[in-house]
Specification:
Keywords: Membrane, Transmembrane, Transmembrane helix. Its main location: membrane. Pfam families: TerC. 69% of the residues lie in helices and 2% in strands. By secondary structure, the protein is an all-alpha fold. It contains 13 helices and two strands. The protein has a domain of 245 residues. Helix 3 crosses helix 8 and helix 10 runs antiparallel to helix 11. The chain has a two-stranded antiparallel sheet with strand order 1-2.
């Protein structure tokens, strides 16, 4: 069954209006949302995704709705895992808490643009070359193995060559100037540290998309479902960042759950590639009808089950532990947090100077 054109247009218009309204709210009143406010917004976006799935079922059929739910859950769980890196980026560049909403919103817009490009490219590849499923499947299994290998290691963010280069060559202010990326100081136009933060988020989003897009194409080949699942997964991510905070550390088994899901989808892709095989050196380029395919309802069941088990097991494992402040909260709480990336070293030098002065005063006061 084909998706009605009017429904696709109405969906894109509605999502665009929603994103613009969200952006306007953030730009008008930049602040750090309370736990209650963040919880309400997250609940709203989750309910919106659930309602959209019901509408999709009513307009089309159960297959598209099931594919949407499976894709949305997969993308949402991957996005939650990516929040760890976002937290570290915020702490690394000392982004003030009241500006983090705007930073995250820009990061989400960058992610939507990049994923839109990847989705169009992926759909074009799949329509012409079904063998690409072999590559996607192998890549997802490889990603799953890496997740398991590096489980338990501390998350870290290393600046790539582009970020290091930009920090060296751009004339930049030492401090953040609100959410501005360009200011006029002393008759000179200077960049602010915010441009580096945006670039860091953008390049990180690009890396995240490399495993995100193949994963959802393993669940559906309909570009509309792929894109809407990504949009609904990213909407509310900003509020989820503030709602979870230090609780992210309690999801100790999330990486295992994601590894299982990615490996499962990878195997599903390889089975589908074999079932529709056109590669000359495999079965003479003929389809392998005996290879089973995994139905979408089973995929959804596995994804929901794995995420539920991973979340419950994580909460039981960390039961009784007080939530730790996230790096972004700890690193931005003080006066240093109101400054730019270069301010930390300056603050440390001042602290050493004050320590030396106190030592000198104590020596002079001795009889």
């Amino acid at each position: 069954m084909e998706l009605p054109v009017w429904f696709e247009i109405a969906t894109f218009v509605g999502l665009t209006v929603l994103l613009i309204a969200d952006l306007a709210i953030v730009a008008r009143r930049p602040h750090e949302p309370s736990f209650k406010e963040a919880s309400l917004w997250v609940s709203f976006y989750v309910a919106l995704a659930l309602v959209f799935g019901v509408v999709l079922f009513a307009v089309t059929n159960g297959t598209y709705a099931t594919e949407f739910y499976a894709g949305w859950l997969t993308e949402y769980s991957l996005s939650v895992d990516n929040l760890f890196v976002f937290v570290i980026i915020m702490a690394r560049f000392r982004v003030p808490r009241h500006l983090q909403q705007e930073v995250l919103m820009v990061g989400i817009i960058i992610a939507l643009v990049l994923r839109g490009v990847f989705i169009l490219a992926g759909a074009a590849l799949i329509s012409r070359f079904t063998w690409v499923f072999y590559f996607f499947g192998a890549f997802l299994v490889y990603t799953a193995i890496n997740l398991l290998r590096h489980r338990g290691e501390d998350e870290n963010y290393e600046e790539n060559a582009l970020i290091r280069r930009m920090r060296r060559v751009l004339p930049m202010t030492p401090d953040f100037q609100g959410s501005k990326i360009r200011v006029l100081e002393g008759g000179r136009k200077l960049w602010t540290p915010m441009i580096v933060v945006f670039l860091a988020l953008g390049t990180t989003d690009l890396i995240f998309a490399l495993d995100s897009i193949p994963a959802i194409f393993g669940l559906t080949r309909e570009p509309f479902i792929v894109f809407t699942a990504n949009v609904f997964a990213l909407m509310g991510l900003r509020q989820l960042y503030f709602m979870l905070g230090g609780l992210l550390k309690r999801l100790v088994y999330l990486s295992i759950g994601l590894a299982v899901i990615l490996a499962f989808i990878g195997v599903k892709l390889v089975l589908e590639a074999l079932h529709e095989n056109t590669v000359p050196f495999i079965n003479g380029g003929e389809h392998i009808a005996a290879v089973p395919t995994i139905p979408i309802w089973l995929s959804l069941t596995v994804i929901v089950g794995v995420l539920a088990i991973a979340t419950i097991a994580s909460l039981l494992k960390t039961r009784g532990q007080a939530p730790e402040p996230s790096p972004a909260e700890a690193g931005v709480a003080g006066t240093v947090g109101a400054q730019g990336p270069e301010a930390l070293a300056e603050a440390e030098r001042r602290a050493e100077q004050r320590g030396d002065e106190r030592t000198s005063d104590q020596e002079r006061s001795r009889p």
